[in-house]
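Q: What does the assembly look like in three dimensions?
Context provided by user:
Components: two
Sequences:
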Amino acid sequence: MNGLIKLIEDKFVPIAARIGSQKHLSAIRDAFASLMPLIMAGAIAVLLNNVFFVPWGLLANFIGAESGFIVWANANIAPIFSAIDAGSLSIMALGLCFSLGYKRAEYEGKDALSTALVTVGCFIVCGALVRNNELVASYVTHYLGAQGLFIGLIIGLTAPEIYMWAVDKGWVIHLPESVPPAVSKAFAGILPGLLTFLIWGLVYYMFTRLTGLNVFAWFEVNIQTALMKLSQSIWSILLISTLIPLLWFFGLHGANLLEAVMAPVYGTLGLMNIQNFAEGITKVGMGANELSPWVRGSWDAYVFLGGSGATLALVAAILLVSKAAEDREVAKYGIGCGIFQINEPVLFGLPVVLNPIYLIPFVISQPIMTLIGYYATVWGFAGPIVNTVPWTTPPVFGALLATNGSIGAALTALICLVVAFIIYLPFVMAANRAAKK
Amino acid sequence: MIFIQMPLKREDVIGLLNGATHEGFTFHYLKQEKMKLYFEVDGDQREAAKTVEKVIKTSKWGSALYYQVSYEE
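A: Here is the predicted structure of the complete assembly.
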C-alpha cells in the first residue's frame, strides 16, 4: 500500500493539483457554486408549485385537480412561485455568464465587475433574448436559462480573456490622476469592452450568415443534443460513479476534480427536467421534450446515500454485526451525520480512506446503485428527478421529494441502501476479524 | 491541539507547518498516528484550525487533496 501511496503522491497528485487549481476550471466550479442562491430559490419555488399548487402536482393527485383548493391555488399562489422561477432558475445561463466573467477577472486581479458586465453583454449580443424552437421545449422563448448554459459557458470563458488581453495590452483610456478612481476605472474599460463586443458581434453575424441560425440555435441543434445523449449513456454515468469514490478513497478531492464536468452537463439536464416538468411534461427518455433519466440529483437520490460510497449502509452494517468497540463508536457518532449525507467522520474515523478492507465495497457499491437507480427510472418504476432538493436531505426522503412523490423512487433508494448494506456486510465482518486478531 | 487527517502528502504538510508562522499562529509538529497529524499551537485553536485549512488549500497541491482539520481546546 505504501508503494501505491508514493506512486499516487509522486505521479497523480501533481496532475490532479493542476486540474484542481487550473484557473478556468476553478472559475467554472466557483461560478456554478455562486449560483446557489438562484438555484435554491427557484428550486423551492418550483418544488412548492409541483407538490401543492398546480393541477398536475402531488397534492392534486390525492385531492383531485378540480378541487376548490387546487383551482384557487393555481390561480392565486402558483403564479407567485412561477414568477420567482422566471427570475431564478430561468436565468441560470445569464447568471453563469456574469459569475464566470467575475471569477475569471478576480483570479487575474482585474476589474471583476466591468469584466462580468461585458461578458453578460456579449451573451446578449449573440442572440440570447430570442429562441424559436418548435421541436424542443417550444415554450422557452429565450436562451437565458438551461437552454443557453453551454454557450453561456463558452462566452463566460472567452469574453473575459479578450477583455483582459486588451487591458494587458494597455489599450485603455488614461485619465489624469485628479479624476476619481471609480471614474477612471470605468473609462479604462471602454476600449477593451468595445473590442470584446465587436468580436462577439462578428461571431453573431458570421453564424447567422453562414448557418442561418444564431450561435445558440446552431449549438442546440448540432452539438447540445448529441452531448446530452452521450451524458445519458449508462457507461458515462458508470464511469463518473466509479471515479468519485475511487478518488475519495485515495485521498483526492473527488468533487473538486469532477465538478467542472458534472455541473455543466448533469446540472443543466436537471434544470431542463425541472423546466419541462413545470410545463406538464412527464415522459422519460432521451428525445425532444422528454425528461432525462439521469441528472445531477440522481446521484444524491440513489447513490450518495449517507455520502459518497453509501456509507450510511456501512454504518448500519457496523452497528448490526461489528464487535470492534472503536468501529462501533465511530459508527454511533457517524450515523447522525450520515442521515444528512455527511460522511467525513466515518471516512476518516474508521477510516475508509486508504483502508484496503473497505476499498472494494466503497468503490463498487456506487456503480451498482447507479445501475439500479438508472434502470428503475428508465423502466418507469421510479419517477424522474424533477425537483432540486438540498443534498443534505436524508436518503429515501430525498428521492421521494426530488421525484415529486414517486413511491417507486423512494423504494428504489431503499433498495439501493439495502444492496449497499449487503455489499458492505462481509467486509465489516472481515474488519471485525482483523480487529480481534 | 490541531489534528489533520489526510491520506496523502503528510510529509509535505509537516514541512509546510512545522515551525512556520501563518496569520500569527506558529505550529509545532508533535506526532503522527496512522493518517492523523498532531500539531501544537498557541492561541484560539478554532482560528488556528481555520488557518491550517486555508494554508493547505492554497498550497500548490491543496486543491486536489481530501483532508479534515479539527481541533481540541
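Follow-up: Residues 7-35 of chain B form one domain.
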